[in-house]
Design brief:
alpha/beta, UDP-n-acetylglucosamine1-carboxyvinyl-transferase, Chain, five-stranded parallel beta sheet, four-stranded mixed beta sheet, 39% helix, binds shikimate-3-phosphate
Length: 682
Amino acid sequence: MTPAPPLNVAGRVRAPGDKSISHRALILAAMAVGPSRIRRILPSADVHATAAALRALGVAVPALSDDFVVQGRGVSALHTPESVLDCANSGTTTRLLAGLVAGLDGVSARFEGDASLSRRPMRRVAEPLRRMGARIEFEGAAGHEGLPMRVTGARLASVDLVNSHASAQVKGAVLLAGLAAGVSVTVEEPHVSRDHSERMLQARGVALRVSTRDNGAQVVTLDAAQQVQALDVDVPADPSSVTFFAALAALADAGELWFDNVCLNPTRIGAFDVLRRMGAALILHDMTEQGGEPVGSVCVRPSTLQGTHIGGAEIPRCIDELPMLACLATRARGETIIADAAELRVKESDRIRAVVENLQRLGATAEERPDGMRIVGTDTALRGQVETHGDHRLAMAFGILGALPGNSIIIDDPGCVSVSYPTFWRDLAQVTSAAAGEAAVRTPPAGTDGQRTTSGGARRLVIAIDGPAASGKSSTAQWVAQQLDVRHVDSGAFYRAATWLALQSGVEPEHWTPELVLAGTPRITWRLTERSVLPLIDGQEQDLALRDTPVTRQVSRVASMAPVRAWVNSQVREAGAAVDVVVDGRDIGTAVFPDAALKVFLIADTWERARRRLIQRLGRRPNDAEIAEETEALVARDAQDATQSAPARDAVTIDTTSVTQVEQVERIVALARATRERLGQS
Ligand code: S3P
């Protein structure tokens, strides 16, 4: 067997905004009176869930973008939502907003979530909120203390809570309840948990007292009758997301990775300390303060790693990073023990069992313990399939492990990274290709439906097919993809899914705004099928509904909205970073995949395009008068599209006026095969 090529990494990773800060930035902006500008929020599924829930409670939260303003009207403007609060996969959304609603006298909301969230324990927030006087009812099966859950706010009494385990979500919920109801609260925890709620409240004019007892217990006290002030915030990069790439850089053979503007809050960077203790060359630079949070740059270079012991007060400081640290431990010398981390069992999955089972399946030595795990480092190649249980951190941790030389790991549900790091696969491809000219992404073997493989080695292939209206982009792309045995991405299907959801809103299409259309998009995810990248709505295939006439009638309205185009483009890019694809659509070779391996621009005489379109539409040969009329429509459309549909400078233009579709497909397939050879793919 030839040895795997070494892994070089290079570049600056712009990791997305911090998840914990993003949730709190929205909630505190909603509670304040006045405008709060939020920059660089994390636009992930979890944060979308918080934004949607706040909208349902009466807050005007615009569509999430890189820079927007929430006009807060204070807690008294919040009201009982007409619909349920769908918290999707997000524990933070559920627990923090349960606290907020509990403090709103007379407001009542039903919280629901996906299967994973519905399994997670909610008694931890219900119990203190009930003690304060709120009504919390679990509405699922008898004895199930999780979602669905109804929270009814009341005039709360103050509380002095001694929590048996450190939880930032419980602490945050009690603080928000106290603040909304105007009563004092005290929360004591055995160790310090992440302290964004405290920092962000203090930055917004709320007085808090924080003290540490001799035994390390942390006590936070909020005084009665305080107001949150509006404040602008620039969300720093999420250290949990950075940890995945920091681990990759530490385990690489050469190069270095830089991360800028990272949140370096000491309650969040336990994983950086662990990495250093294991021998990683991880250096913090340019530390400064921003909105009450320490931020700075991080640089990580490869080094030899040693196993370690992770436990005690360190656990809350690296709880979300433990799956990555466990995967990394397979490539460290000796054994690594993770202890005091039973909390991992009630995260998005049972992360102790899921990590250990997956490591064992790949051929690593790992052992489950009630409160953690033991992992033994090895040099053997780790290969096989990983079951993520829809858990984003598992998908990413094993994605990184799979990108290491010699390893080859199939991830069953790559799309679940959208919960916290929607651009993860693209960033992974970028940092590994920038140095080596190679991407760590490879087409899954045929038949591995809906999966993604990372491995040190092969490059990915993106074929971009562009051209004016009715140039035959879509049918050609589908055919080419089939010939090459790669996936076809039909960007139109994403527009149709967004249109279908906009129709469900009940708002007349003439009144649709980009915000309204984008509000539905967090419900859209995608899955790889054997032949295509398939958009899903609420996790379900909607093929027939998407082809409905009302959708067809309104889709061009939606596709003309620039923010919606940006959203579709990001979905398509994500798919293209995950697997080999043929993509067709407007500006695909210019704006969406400027670095596509092969770009094709199809042109054809307008008369010919009109004729083809009519054959498709009418199912018969059109007469000359009909073609003339359609030609006129196409000329107008071309003028309208002129800015969008210019060929990329490096595109191969194919005039299809007098070639058959078979010839045209053959030509593109030949070009694609040559490109594959150039990239070193078989
Ligand atoms: C979070 C707190 C942590 C963490 C979660 C986000 C938060 O959970 O695991 O991903 O933003 O408050 P705990 O409630 O267990 O601290």
